Amino acid sequence: MSLLTAVRNDMCYCPGCSHGLVLEQLAQAIARLALPPPRVCLVSDIGCIGTADRYFTCHTFHGLHGRSFTYAEGIQRVRPDVLTIVLVGDGGCGIGTAHLVHAARRGVPIKVIVCNNFNFGMTGGQHSPTTPADALTPTTPAGFHERPFDIAETARISGASFVARASAYDAGLPGLLERGLRAPGFALLEVWELCSAYFVQSNKLTPARLNELAARGGMPFGVLAEPPAGDARPAAPSSPADTGKAASDETVPQPRGPKLPWPGRREITLAGSAGQHIRTAVGALGEIAVACGLHAAEHDDYPITVRKGHSISNLVVDARPILFAGVEAPALVIIMSADGAARVGDLSHLPSSSQVIVASDLPPPATPATVHVVDLDAFARAATRAGVALALLAYGVVRAGWVESEALCAAADAVLSGRHRESNLSALRAGVAAAAAQSPACAASTAGGRHDP
User: Fold this and answer.
1) Domain range holding 440?
2) Which are the contacts of 335, defined by CB distance < 8 A and separation ≥ 6?
3) Tens of pLDDT along 73-104?
4) For the chain, how many structural domains are there in total?
């Protein structure tokens, strides 16, 4: 079964770009491994190839430029049963060289596909670390005068078990992709591509000339390193077809807290301002959920300034694996500041079953959902100012009837640790107490929504 959801011409890439071709062949290679979608994870970062995650029906992780290797290593260490594939460009390899080198040195069993088109194609065609000698780019109008970075050779001498280099137009590319995915330890395949928007136009590069470029630069195509027979390093996860039995959950981390009953998929949005500990609160609830046998996915939104402006954290919690981590119609929205309200925007699309908790100094939003107005100062007195966000989360999930207050407190007590353990427990208990007592500080408002006292 192919995990790819789009054909080449429907992808976002420029006409003539070879990214779509590589993705189609990668999908074919993954399909031959016969792994179910939950056991495959694509990790990407910034750059044109970083948009590929939207086209695959499996786990995906998109992060900062050059950091894809570190994210993949973390995923692989926690979930060794998952085939973790890094899709990265030459720009990401240049920025994340240290991460690439040390992941290869440690033999982390991640599989890296480098889509090398010799320039920063997403931002205007500037030269990259792999730009060939004498190549013309907007930042090297007189030609590139540095020795290009040899990604494949760097991985080989750093200890990668499998290393290969090929053209995107090479008939043998699908086979190399499959060999790389099946190889034990750290595997890297560098694929030379054409950037039709910038590099091809300035340098008259063609598929045939990629081979000439490789020969002239002393960077041959083909397999550069292979694991010896009997290599004991971890390999790609076996498929059920390979083992003759169903996939096992033995490698999945086991819960370390009491089982936490949960009614199904619930989407939560916590919106406020920098300094209100928004992401910290959502992270704490997510940690409790995962440690107690549930699945959780967090997605944050905040400006690059960090210390001012909005801070929003979305959380999805489900008893089943989460195959889509987006938040479309949250069942619980908590708004703590004007910054958060402005960023969340119109809530008229929420169903009447959703709950909205809003600070009393803000105008209640117009929404079909039930709106609860709360006094943040009252929560601060019970939980400290830093604990208000976590207290409101506990208040919201208990009041919504998703979890019993005793079960949530017991789970938090068993799971939370570190130097903020006691303050987090205090905040959570304050929220639970407010929900249980229907605190006078919390009053319901119709404000365009359904009244629910």
Assistant:
1) 266-445
2) 271, 272, 341, 344, 356, 357, 358, 359, 362, 365
3) 999 998 999 999 999 999 999 999 999 999 99
4) 2
